[in-house]
Amino acid sequence: MEKASLFLPLVILLIQCLPIVPVTVSTTTPKVEVHENSDAVLSCDFRTEKEQNPRIEWKKKGTDVSFVYYEGHFRGAFAGRARIKGATVTLQRVTQKDAGEYRCEITAPHDTITLGETNITLEVLVPPHTPSCEIPSSALTGSVVQLRCRDQQSIPPATYSWYKDDKPLTPSRMANATYHLNPITGILEFKTVARGDTGQYSCLASNKVGPPKMCEAKHMKIEDVNMAGVVAAVVVICLVIAICGFGGYYAHRNGYFSSPFGSLSVMVWPTSATRTSIEQKTRLMPTTTLHPKTLRTSNTPSPSCCEDLDIPLEDNTGVVSFHPNE
Asked: What is the Cα 193 distance to its own chain's centre?
């Protein structure tokens, strides 16, 4: 009896010292990759301490729809095309819009730790689509020419290869190569295109998710530079410049660029005060007929033209008229 009485408190003490396991949430596939229009399984496993009926919630990060599964129902775009077993969700006919990061949350109110969660990333793989190709129809020899190929819908991003006359062009790493092909950007660049580069060009996009797709082949023609036409154009331009220069010089030398008014004729009509002074002077000159005196000047009026009549040019009360020289 004494041993039993000692053993019971020891068992109780050991039970109290055992660690309590709170709610735990985990997943077997933290990253899920599926092809477009197929089903995606988002696994979520949980274990609770005491709670027998925990609350299960699924959320999608970075979207307007916060809840995917809430209060026993699927929400938004997932309604009618998803099912749940335990806490694992299966999405049917996934599209690129379904790609993203999801979070599985388990709430256990009766547990010591009431909340547990795990994250799953869903990536929807999209096979290549027919790429868009930019191929010039013609170019001149010696010029730089770029051919572009792009598929913006494939996931993961497609890689590109170019064909000329149905034969593949290999990416050249030689320093003296006439072209450079970038399989990541899809750009085929000719540093100095030649007549031998004339042909039918097409581009193939592939990403190992589905069958590769090729754009329609287009013909690119390389033509030589018309040297005779270039020389003739240069000669014509030089003649036009020479004629314009000679015409300007001739016009300047013959005065076509001088002032349109030329030299000015200034006629000053004396005022009443001036006329009185003139009359007094003319009494000593009876044979002289008084007339308005005409002054001609190219730059400044001659001082002698006004000294005889003693007419002040600065007097602004007179009437002055200007006439261009004929």
From this structure: 28
CB atoms within 10 A of CB 83: 12
DSSP string, 25-58: EE-S-SEEEEETTS-EEE--EEE-SS-SS-EEEE
CB of 156 closer than 8 Å to CB of 125: yes
Those residues with Cβ within 8 angstroms of residue 103's Cβ, 6 or more apart along the chain or in another chain: 58, 59, 60, 61, 117, 118, 119, 120
The predicted pLDDT at position 176 comes to: 63
Q: Whole-model pTM?
A: 0.57
- CA–CA–CA angle 260, 261, 267 (5° rounding): 170
Please tell me the total number of residues recorded for the chain in this structure: 326
Cα 11 from Cα 205, distance rounded (Å): 70
Most confident listed range (130-134, 245-249, 251-255, 282-286): 130-134
β-bridge pairing 31-35 and 115-125: parallel
Burial 262-285 (b: 16+ CB within 10 A, else e): eebebebebeeebeeebeeeeeee
Greatest alpha-carbon pair distance for the chain in Å reads 177
Q: How far apart are CA 278 and CA 284, in angstroms?
A: 11
The answer to whether the CB of 36 falls within 8 A of the CB of 95 is: yes
| Predicted pLDDT at 62 | 79
